[in-house]
Write a structure and sequence with these properties.
This protein is mainly α. Helices cover 72% and strands 0% of the residues.
């Protein structure tokens, strides 16, 4: 649970900004988005495999571009 305590002479905007940073850093929102729908293990593996292939292709394109220079 993320919480922030109001500091002396701190405005509500500053407090809210600090809270948003803490939430973003802790990864709460990404976890909530990921768990919003049930994804079976086989579907999760398929998605991870697709991401890995895309990542490898992207790296390969960068390597090829460097070799051409």
């Amino acid at each position: 649970m993320t919480s922030v305590i109001l500091r002396p002479n701190e405005s509500q905007e500053q407090l809210l900004k600090r809270f948003r940073k803490k939430v973003a850093k802790s990864g709460i929102l990404s976890t909530v988005r990921r768990k919003r729908w049930f994804v079976s293990k086989s579907e999760l593996r398929r998605i991870q495999r697709k991401k890995a292939i895309r990542r490898l292709k992207r790296r390969q394109r960068k390597i090829d571009a460097r070799q051409r220079d």
